[in-house]
Amino acid sequence: MVASPISAPRSAALKELVERGYFEQASDVEALDRNLEQGMVTAYIGYDPTARSLHVGNLLTIMALRVLQRHGHRPICLIGAGTALVGDPSGRSETRRLMTTEQIAENATSFRSQLERFLHFDRGVENDAFMLNNADWLGQLGYLEFLRDIGRHFTVNRMIAAKTYRDRLEAELPLSFLEFNYQLLQAYDFWHLYHKHGCTLQMGGSDQWGNMIAGVELIRRSSAHSRATGTGTGTDAVQSLTCPLLTTPDGRKMGKTERGAVWLDPRKMAPFEYYQYWINSDDSMTGRLLRLFTELPLDEITALTDVTGAALREAKNRLAFETTELLHGRDAATQAQTASKQAFGGGGDWSAVSCVEIDTATIKLIELVAHPSIAAFKSKRDARQRIESGAVRLNGAACADPNHLIRVGDCGEQGLRLQAGKRNRFRVRLTG
Question: Burial code of 230-255, b = ≥16 C-beta within 10 A, e = fewer?
């Protein structure tokens, strides 16, 4: 199935998705536009619980669901505890590490509170979002019945033509039979949600296009079979819509830093660090990020970003504040903003800066700034040069000795104040 082109949308929801940059392609844009205009559409996005927190890479699709809900449509957040037992091969050159059911269940429980920052769940209105877990139905499937009732609608020829599988095969990289089943399971999720919850739209990142279209085709083929045998009516109403994968100007996936993922859970990333992530984003992306990750009016975004040089700093400040407020609330955003101004304007309150604990009794300064939980510079060589040039400060004083030894007693109750370069600021506590 080839994606249909976009023209001028009639529905307010699709218009906003397009204008703000959430729309990349859809299986049938005209039908989707018509459905969104005629009444409430139920749409779902799946999130595999492979970590204890969602991250900024997930945020674009969460914001897209938020747009739909604001226009009266109903989101389903599908926790992929069942498919996580298989592992999504999309965008990967090697098999994912398999997780235990206990790990998956623990991760899944933390997602609800993060999603509630962006979607309303229990207001008693028709378009309340709700969360489902695909382990509830995938775990009940009988293998023979699944092959007979679902597998019969797929051909191996078509499946290996999908980019995910084709890339692995062409590179002569392993593709396990377990992973080969992933597309069928995701297609079945859509089939199940369509029949049980009236879900007619699946959304996701562009790397999911093949899996999403498999779901559309499964519903249509099984419906056609039902019509032919007199056991059902079928429909052509189901659609898939992909959001663009957001990358930085140097081609990296948005939502990654040198220290790892940008998490939505404040226990994994403090509001101050989250604020700093947006402040430090590339200037050239400011307008796009404001459209995607804030709800500022488009004309205001244009006015904010129709500038260059130092004047763009105000737009970056608005980006950081608005994104932090959406996730953590106004008080946390205000505190992060104040701490940021104090940190990078000289002196200030360090209370909003997260504390990094390192399990050692002593550590050299160069090892500290290169530690995985800090990773302040690109490499150890770069770290040495920056230290020697005076770019690192301990408790406010410059330290130009890469071999300077830091001990437990140097950290105090509140932690050693470490500033590495202009943008990296930590409180460090040694626990060895």
Answer: eeeebeebbbbbbbeebeeeeeeebb
Q: What is the mean pLDDT of each run of 10 residues along the chain (432 residues)?
A: 70 96 94 94 93 93 98 96 69 55 80 94 96 91 79 74 72 73 88 95 92 90 54 62 89 73 90 89 92 97 86 89 97 89 59 78 92 86 89 85 90 82 82 80
Determine the Cα–Cα distance for residues 86 and 69; give it in Å rounded to an integer: 31
Q: Which residues contact 135 (CB under 8 A, 6 or more apart)?
A: 81, 82, 85, 101, 104
Q: Is 381 helix (H, G, I), strand (E, B) or coil?
A: helix
d(CA 82, CA 122): 25
Q: Are strands 416-420 and 424-430 parallel, antiparallel or unpaired?
A: antiparallel
The CA distance from 50 to 108, in Å, is: 9
Nearest to 241 by CA among 48, 20, 64, 38: 64
Contacts 24+ apart (CB under 8 A), 233-237: 235/200, 236/31, 237/31, 237/35, 237/200
Cα-based torsion angle of the residue sequence 21, 74, 269, 104 in order, rounded to the nearest 10 degrees: -120
| Cα separation, 330 vs 317, whole angstroms | 14
Strand order in the sheet with 74-79: 25-26, 239-243, 199-205, 42-47, 74-79, 130-133
Which helix (DSSP H) or strand (DSSP E) does residue 427 occupy? strand 424-430
- What is the reported pLDDT for 228? 40
